[in-house]
Amino acid sequence: MFDQILGLPAHPLIIHFAVVLTPLLVVVAVAYALLPRVRPYVAWAVVLLALAAPAAVFAAKESGESLKEARFGTAEGEMAARISAHESFATPLLTSALGLGAVALLLVYATHPARDSVGRDRFGRPVTMVLAVLTVALAAVCASYVFQSGDSGARAVWS
């Protein structure tokens, strides 16, 4: 399923979704967490990106495994080391993207006004603060892994 798209290897095509959507999730989630006045304007983007970015990372991970098996299963030496280094970031990136997505969704739910309480956080201010801090922390971790994954992949291809 993640092997080819129109006869081309799927991984180089699919990674572009992860490379664009994951940093967008990072930026929008941090803005949502730190800037309460922009929340009404970016809540929809947080929700969509919290669902789409982890899905894109999952597809990139699966297509990368398929590409490795189909084209680089017998790679040795420096090329195998570069592929292995790149591959080592896949699971941490997926885990951090899933975590960021889940916490960002919880933050949106917690801060979205309930019908019976105008302007109040659904679970109270302390819970909202914890979710905001977790969002920023997971965004930093996710940004680090997306950079490292992209950098190691580019080095594997172009070095």
UniProtKB/TrEMBL annotation:
<keyword id="KW-0812">Transmembrane</keyword>
<feature type="transmembrane region" description="Helical">
    <location>
        <begin position="12"/>
        <end position="35"/>
    </location>
</feature>
<feature type="domain" description="DUF2231">
    <location>
        <begin position="7"/>
        <end position="159"/>
    </location>
</feature>
<dbReference type="Pfam" id="PF09990">
    <property type="entry name" value="DUF2231"/>
</dbReference>
<dbReference type="InterPro" id="IPR019251">
    <property type="entry name" value="DUF2231_TM"/>
</dbReference>
<keyword id="KW-0472">Membrane</keyword>
<feature type="transmembrane region" description="Helical">
    <location>
        <begin position="89"/>
        <end position="109"/>
    </location>
</feature>
<protein>
    <recommendedName>
        <fullName>DUF2231 domain-containing protein</fullName>
    </recommendedName>
</protein>
<keyword id="KW-1133">Transmembrane helix</keyword>
<feature type="transmembrane region" description="Helical">
    <location>
        <begin position="41"/>
        <end position="60"/>
    </location>
</feature>
<feature type="transmembrane region" description="Helical">
    <location>
        <begin position="129"/>
        <end position="147"/>
    </location>
</feature>
